[in-house]
Design a protein that fits this description.
single chain, alpha/beta, Rossmann fold, seven-stranded parallel sheet, seven-stranded mixed sheet, globular
Length: 369
């Protein structure tokens, strides 16, 4: 992690992230690192697991706790309908979030605000940025007719921000397909290319493999635990296979052994996780977009298992699978051994990323603060 500059500039920037697992918090780390390096005073705002990750990675930074959406995946049934039923609660949480943000702006004298998918983290009085890869939202085939309505409501919140940063390539080829490239916004939109917590850490080298398989879990319960149990059962049965499984539990710090050569760790900080990726022959993970960004930056591939009912993850895994970049499997039909066999002939990510695009976007933002 980058050290805080000894001489802080007068600019105070808040970075706020949605707590939907830890992905939004981790993909914002290169932004936080650059703000720190430029001498800014950085205030971090989130809740739950996302805030826990930031407090572990940046213990010296001040934090603000925001209202939780309290999103949980059900074991069965439609997640889209579940979210629809939660809409009144989410809107209430966004309103509470706005009040807390307004108070924080006064308390910390914040000059600019960068929000990763937190709709209430904005102010008309200071420059604001909204980070998203979902300009358009994806629904199941039966509800596809409602995607235009969802775009309207999504845009209703996004239009409150001055600028939108999209962590994807502009044009084709790209990582998000229709999610970022189907509809246009009236806001200023800047495509940053892939941004990842690993982009400031990786030296471009691949060390000798230490693990046959690494599993990196993430996301909201109970589906995170359900996948862990399925994977553990199948991986235990693979002979002569060295496995490391990272639970993605930022609230714990435990290491256990399932069997000789099968280690489970509750959490890994960024540098250790990057090294684990690089030292693994095969990677198994969810198709959360932040994980996709990590893989894209390091030009790797993975067996991806979308969270059931999470239409964004299903779309991304299928989109990247059709391009031959990853292997996609349905959690209900999980076959780890077959997935690993397919990975042996999967090319993986190969597009380059240019960190100067992110640097320029941050410089332009700070110039307005």
């Amino acid at each position: 992690m980058l050290n805080i500059a000894t001489e802080m500039s007068q600019k105070t920037v808040m970075v706020a992230a949605l707590n939907w697992g830890i992905g939004h918090a981790t993909r914002d780390m290169p932004i936080i690192n650059r703000l720190i390096k430029k001498g800014c005073r950085v205030i971090l705002a989130s809740d739950g697991a996302a805030l826990n990750v930031w407090r572990r990675e940046y213990p010296e930074l001040e934090t603000v706790e925001l209202p939780s959406w309290n999103i949980k995946y059900q074991k069965w049934g439609s997640f889209t309908l579940k979210m629809a039923s939660r809409a009144p609660y989410i809107i209430k949480a966004i309103r509470e979030e706005r009040k807390i943000i307004a108070e924080a702006i006064k308390k910390y004298q914040i000059d600019g605000l960068i929000s990763d998918n937190r709709f209430g983290a904005y102010s008309p009085d200071i420059p604001t940025v909204f980070i998203t890869h979902q300009i358009s939202l994806r629904l199941t085939p039966l509800l596809r007719w409602a995607e235009g309505i969802l775009f309207y409501y999504n845009n209703y919140f996004i239009k409150n921000f001055d600028t939108v940063w999209v962590p994807d390539y502009d044009g084709s080829p790209n990582l998000t397909g229709e999610l970022s490239h189907r509809h246009k916004l009236k806001n200023e939109v800047r495509f940053l290319g892939p941004i990842s917590r690993f982009m400031d850490l990786w030296d471009g080298k691949f060390p000798a493999p230490e693990y046959d398989v690494s599993v990196v879990l993430s996301g909201v319960e109970p589906q995170r635990t359900m996948l862990e149990e399925k994977l553990t059962e199948q991986l235990k049965a693979l002979p002569n296979t060295k496995v490391i499984l990272v639970q993605g539990r930022s609230d714990k710090n435990e290491t256990t052994e399932i069997r000789p050569g099968f280690t489970v760790k509750s959490y890994m900080a960024s540098e250790e996780l990057m090294e684990t990726f690089l030292k693994s022959k095969y990677i198994i993970c969810r198709s959360g977009y932040s994980t996709i960004l990590d893989l894209a930056v390091m030009k790797q591939t993975a067996l991806m298992i979308p969270t059931p009912g999470q239409t964004e993850q299903v779309y991304l895994a299928e989109w990247l699978g059709k391009q031959g970049l990853v292997v996609c499997q349905d959690q209900r039909k999980l076959d780890v051994q077959a997935g690993i066999e397919k990975l042996k002939t999967t090319k993986g990510f190969s597009l380059t990323s240019d960190s100067s695009v992110l640097n320029n976007a941050i410089d332009d933002f700070l110039g307005k603060c």
